[in-house]
Design brief:
Radius of gyration: 32 Å
Number of strands: 31
Helix content: 40-55%
Strand content: 15-25%
Number of helices: 34
Oligomer: single chain
Distance between the termini: 37 Å
Largest sheet: 8 strands, mixed
Length: 883
C-alpha cells in the first residue's frame, strides 16, 4: 500500500485538513475543512487532492496506486458519519461531486449533484422522503450526469422539461407534480440511451468514478483553459475533487438555497449581500433560471435561519479577514454551509473593503494594501457615461457590475471574439451566460443578460473581469435566428451600437459619451498609503503638456520618456520635417530645422511647466526618417494618376520624391538607420532638439522654475556612439546657457535597448549619467522579432505554452530581464550613483514593476493611465520582498 495520502476527510470531529492546505486540497476543500474545524455546520465529505489530478494527467488519465482504495475507505467513513449507505435501496447515501482549484474559477469546471440515484434508489428515496422530491432529484441527476459526464447538450434536457411545462400549462419547475417529474425523468433516461447508445449507469460506484473522471477532465476543457490564460493561472496546478454528502434545498417550502457575500461585491458596502430561493437546488440560483429573492427577505421568511447565517457570516469574515463568498442550503429548517471562498469584487469594492477592514481593526494597513490587486485598478480608470449627457434608457436590468461599455450587439461568444479580433467593440447580449461564454465575455465591452440575478454567472464573472454588466433585464426578447432583440417597442439588430450602464442597470441605444473618472476618495487613500511604502519612483511616458498634466493628476513624479518624434507629426510640422529630410545639403536641412526650433521649444516649455520641477527625460529623435515621408505605394498611385492625366508639371516632382523615398527605404527599419545613428550622420537634427530643450529650460529658470533636463540618446550600442552624441549635446547645452546667462544642472544619458549595450553597460556608464531601459526594443532585439509582426504567432505561442506570457505585455524575466539586471549591475560597477529606470510599456505591468524593484531600479515609467497601477505595484514589491 503506498505511503502517499491522496484523500482527506472533512466533517465534525474527523476533519483531516485546514485552510493552510489550499495548494493540496484546493480552495473549496481547504475551506470546507476549515469551516468544519470552526464548528460551522458543513455536510461531511472528502477531498481527492490536486496531486491526484496532476498525476492523473501525467499518467494518461490513470490514477496513482492507492487512490481508489482510499476513496472506498473515506466513503465508508462518510456512511458511518451520516447513517446512510451508498447504493442502498431504502436508505441511499447521495453525493455531490465538485471541483476545487487552489484559486477560484467560478463555473469553469464541472459538478455532478444527486449522485447515487438509480431506478431502485429513487424509489427508496420516494418512500423514505417524498415522491415529488425524489423524482425532482432524479431528473436533475440524469440531466447533470448526461451533460457533464456523457457529453449531451443541456438544451436537449431543457426541451423535454419545457415541453412538459407547456403541456401542463405551468411556468415554473416547482409547479410540476410527482407524476410529471417521473415522466420527465423517464423521457430524460430514454433520450440519454438513444443518444449514447448505452444504458444509463445504474451502479452508484460506476457513477461516482465516471463523475470524478469528468471533474478532473474538466480542468482541461476549452473554457477552463481560456479562463486560466485570462487570469494567469498555471496549467499544472490541477484541481481537487470534493465528494460531499448531499443536503437538499428542494425538500419543500421550509428548504432553500442561496449564494451570498459578506459585503457588497460591487460597492464594498459593509452590508450582507446575496440571493436565495426556497424549494430549490443551488444551480437554480446561479443559472438564473428562476428569479431569486434578496438575502434580507430571508430575515422575514425564516428569521432563525437568517440570524444563524448572519452570525456565520461574521465569524467567517473575522477568521479569514476577507470579504467571503458563501453558498448555503437550508434542509427542512436546518442550515448547512456548502462553501466559503474569497469573494470576487470590483476594483471600487476592493479598495473600499480594504480601507474599511483597516478602520475596523481587522487588518493592518500593509495587509489592506495587499488586498487590492494593482492590475484591478485599471477598472477604476475605465470610462463611465458623462453625467452631463442626456441619455434615454430603453430598458433597465440589475446593475450587476459597475462602469459603462459601448459596442455593437452580438449574440454569441464566438461572434464576439471574431469581431473583437477584427478590431470592433462589442456588447455581448445573452439570455444567460454560461462558462462556455468566457472568451466572448473577456473581449466584450459589456455584458447584458435577460435572466439572472446579482449572483448569476454573468454578474460574478463580469465583476471579476472588471466588465460592466446589466443582468436580469427580463423585458428583452432575443431572436437569434433573426439577429435582433426587441424591448419595450424598440428593435435592436445585431451590429447596432448600444451602451450599458452597469452602475444603474440601464440599456441605452447608440453610443453614449464616456468619460474617465478622477482619482479621489478611497482610491486616493490607498494610493497615498502605497506612496508611503514604496521606494520605487513612478514616472510617465508623455509627449504633450496635456498628457503630462493628466499623468501628474494620477501621481506621476516626472516624465521617464518624452518621445520627440511624436511632436513632428502635426499638420503644421510634417511638411517642414519632410523638407528637412528631402534637402540635398546640410544648409537645406538646417533651414528647415530652424523653422522647427520654436515649435519644439514651445513643446518642451509646456511639458516642463506641467511637470512643475519634476524630472523630464527627453529622448532625441529615434525612428528612421522614412517614417515621416509618404508611403511608396501612395506615391506610385499619385504618379499613375498624374501620368494618366498628362500632368507633366507635377510628375517630375513626384518622381524625385519616389526616388528619395526609395533611397531611404530600409529592409529592417528596427535595426537600421535610426536613433543615435541619425544623430551622428545628421548631427544638425540633434543639435536643434538640444537647443530647443535648453532654451525652453532657461526661459523657465528665469521665471523661477527649477528645471533639470535629462537628455536621452537612443539606440546606443557602442560607447563611442554615446561619446560623439554626448559631446555634441554638451556643447550645445553650454552654448545656450551662455547665451541666456543661465546656469542649470542637467544630465545626459542613454536608452539601453540593445543587448550589446546591456553587455557593455560598465563601459557606457563611464560616460552616461543615467540609463533608461527601453524594454520594448530590448525585447524585440533579444528575441529577434518585430512586435508588429509577432502578433501573427505570439498569441499561439502563449496558447500552446511555448511562452508563459506575451513578452511585450509582461517582461521576459528569464531572458530580457537578465539583460536588464546585467545592465544594472555592470552600470553601477562603474558609476555607483547611476540613475536607472525603464520606460517601455512594461513599466505599468505589476509583475514587471515588482521585478524592477527587486533588481534595484530607481523608477519605472509608463503611460499616464497606468501610473496608479505602478504606484500600488511598487508598494506590493516592498511588502512581498523575500516571498
Amino acid at each position: 500500500m503506498p505511503d502517499h495520502k491522496y484523500v482527506y476527510f472533512f466533517g465534525k470531529d474527523k476533519t483531516e485538513g485546514n485552510a493552510t492546505m489550499r495548494n493540496l486540497l484546493g480552495g473549496k476543500g481547504s475551506h470546507l475543512a476549515e469551516m468544519a474545524n470552526l464548528g460551522i455546520p458543513v455536510p461531511p465529505g472528502f477531498t481527492i487532492t490536486t496531486k491526484v489530478c496532476t498525476e492523473y494527467f501525467d499518467n494518461q488519465q490513470q490514477y496513482p496506486d492507492g487512490v481508489k482504495e482510499q476513496v472506498v475507505q473515506q466513503l465508508a467513513k462518510l456512511e458511518d458519519k451520516t447513517g446512510f449507505k451508498f447504493g442502498d435501496n431504502s436508505n441511499p447515501l447521495l453525493l455531490s461531486v465538485r471541483s476545487g482549484a487552489r484559486i477560484s474559477m467560478p463555473g469553469m469546471m464541472d459538478t455532478v449533484l444527486n449522485l447515487g440515484l438509480n431506478d431502485k434508489t429513487v424509489a427508496g428515496l420516494a418512500e423514505e422522503v417524498d415522491e415529488r422530491f425524489a423524482y425532482d432529484c432524479y431528473r436533475r441527476f440524469i440531466n447533470m450526469f448526461g451533460d457533464v459526464v456523457l457529453g449531451l447538450e443541456h438544451k436537449k434536457f431543457e426541451n423535454i422539461l419545457g415541453a412538459k411545462k407547456k403541456e401542463l400549462g405551468v411556468e415554473n419547475d416547482t409547479e410540476l407534480d410527482a407524476v410529471a417529474l417521473k415522466d420527465v425523468s423517464a423521457k430524460y433516461m430514454a433520450m440519454v440511451e438513444e443518444k449514447t447508445g448505452q444504458d444509463f449507469p445504474q451502479d452508484p460506484m460506476t457513477q461516482l468514478w465516471m463523475s470524478i473522471n469528468a471533474v478532473f477532465d474538466s480542468w482541461n476543457t476549452p473554457r477552463a483553459i481560456k479562463y486560466r490564460k485570462i487570469n494567469g493561472i498555471p496549467d499544472d496546478w490541477g484541481t481537487a475533487v470534493n465528494v460531499q454528502f448531499m443536503v437538499y434545498g428542494n425538500m419543500g417550502e421550509n428548504s432553500g438555497t442561496g449564494v451570498a457575500f459578506t459585503r457588497n461585491p460591487s460597492t464594498g458596502e459593509r452590508k450582507f449581500y446575496g440571493e436565495y430561493l426556497m424549494n430549490a437546488q443551488g444551480e437554480d440560483v446561479v443559472a438564473g433560471i428562476r428569479t431569486p429573492h434578496p438575502i434580507e427577505a430571508l430575515n422575514k421568511e425564516m428569521p432563525e435561519m437568517y440570524a444563524q447565517l448572519d452570525d456565520i457570516k461574521e465569524r467567517l469574515e473575522h477568521h479569514f479577514k476577507e470579504m467571503e463568498d458563501i453558498e448555503f442550503t437550508i434542509q427542512q429548517g436546518k442550515l448547512y454551509m456548502l462553501q466559503t471562498r474569497t469573494g470576487k469584487r470590483t476594483a471600487a469594492a476592493a479598495v473600499r473593503i480594504a480601507i474599511d477592514m483597516f478602520n475596523e481593526g481587522l487588518i493592518t494597513r500593509d495587509e489592506a494594501l495587499l488586498k487590492v490587486d494593482p492590475e484591478q485598478l485599471d477598472q477604476l480608470l475605465h470610462p463611465m457615461i458623462d453625467p452631463n449627457e442626456k441619455v434615454d434608457a430603453i430598458a433597465k436590468g440589475l446593475p450587476a457590475s459597475p462602469g459603462a461599455g459601448v459596442g455593437k450587439v452580438v449574440f454569441t461568444a464566438e461572434h464576439a471574439e471574431e469581431m473583437a479580433e477584427a478590431g470592433e467593440k462589442v456588447v455581448l447580449v445573452r439570455n444567460e451566460t454560461s462558462p462556455e461564454d468566457i472568451g466572448g465575455m473577456h473581449v466584450a465591452q459589456g455584458i447584458l443578460t435577460v435572466r439572472g440575478g446579482m449572483t448569476s454567472h454573468a454578474a460574478v464573472v463580469a465583476r471579476g473581469m472588471g466588465k460592466c454588466c446589466v443582468a436580469g433585464c427580463g423585458a428583452i426578447l432575443i431572436d437569434e435566428d433573426a439577429g435582433l432583440f426587441t424591448v419595450n417597442g424598440h428593435t435592436v439588430k445585431e451590429g447596432d451600437f448600444i451602451t450599458l450602464n452597469g452602475t444603474t442597470g440601464e440599456v441605452i441605444i447608440g453610443q453614449a459619451k464616456l468619460i474617465t473618472p478622477d482619482i479621489s476618495g478611497d482610491l486616493n487613500t490607498i494610493l497615498d498609503w502605497a506612496d508611503d511604502v514604496r521606494t520605487l519612483g513612478v514616472r510617465t511616458n508623455a509627449d504633450t503638456p496635456e498628457d503630462s498634466l493628466a499623468a501628474r493628476d494620477f501621481g506621476a513624479e516626472g516624465i521617464g520618456l518624452c518621445r520627440t518624434e511624436h511632436m513632428f507629426f502635426g499638420e503644421d510640422r510634417i511638411p517642414i520635417v519632410q523638407d528637412m529630410i528631402l534637402a540635398e545639403t546640410e544648409d537645406g536641412r538646417k533651414a528647415a530645422l530652424e523653422k522647427l526650433l520654436p515649435m519644439q521649444r514651445s513643446d518642451f516649455k509646456g511639458i516642463f511647466e506641467a511637470m512643475k520641477g519634476y524630472p523630464v527625460t527627453i529622448r532625441l529623435l529615434d525612428p528612421p526618417l522614412h517614417e515621416f515621408l509618404p508611403k511608396h505605394d501612395e506615391l506610385m498611385e499619385q504618379y499613375a494618376k498624374l501620368k494618366a492625366a498628362g500632368d507633366t508639371n507635377n510628375i517630375h516632382e513626384i518622381k524625385d520624391l519616389i526616388k528619395r523615398v526609395n533611397s531611404l527605404h530600409e529592409f529592417n527599419p528596427m535595426l537600421g538607420h535610426r536613433g543615435c545613428r541619425l544623430g551622428i550622420t545628421y548631427p544638425e537634427i540633434y543639435e536643434m532638439q538640444v537647443r530647443a530643450i535648453f532654451e525652453a529650460a532657461c526661459e523657465l529658470v528665469k521665471d523661477g522654475y527649477e528645471i533639470v533636463p535629462e537628455v536621452m540618446i537612443p539606440l546606443v550600442g557602442h560607447i563611442n556612439e554615446f561619446k560623439v552624441t554626448r559631446d555634441s549635446a554638451d556643447a550645445v547645452a553650454k552654448q545656450v546657457m551662455e547665451e541666456q546667462g543661465v546656469e542649470l544642472d542637467y544630465m545626459i544619458g542613454t536608452m539601453i535597448e540593445l543587448p550589446r549595450a546591456a553587455i557593455t553597460a560598465d563601459e557606457i556608464a563611464t560616460e552616461a549619467e543615467f540609463f533608461s531601459f527601453g524594454t520594448n526594443d530590448l525585447t524585440q532585439t533579444t528575441f529577434g522579432l518585430s512586435r508588429d509582426d509577432a502578433g501573427k504567432f505570439l498569441p499561439y505561442y502563449v496558447e500552446i505554452g511555448i511562452l508563459e506570457n506575451d513578452p511585450f505585455v509582461a517582461i521576459d524575466q528569464d531572458g530580457v530581464g537578465q539583460l536588464v539586471k546585467m545592465g544594472v549591475d555592470k552600470g553601477r560597477s562603474s558609476r555607483p550613483d547611476l540613475k536607472i529606470g525603464i520606460c517601455g510599456e512594461h513599466g505599468g505591468e505589476p509583475g514587471s514593476v515588482i521585478f524592477c524593484h527587486n533588481i534595484g531600479l530607481d523608477y519605472v515609467s509608463c503611460s499616464p493611465f497606468r501610473v496608479p497601477i505602478a504606484r500600488l505595484a511598487a508598494a506590493h514589491a516592498v511588502l512581498k520582498k523575500g516571498e
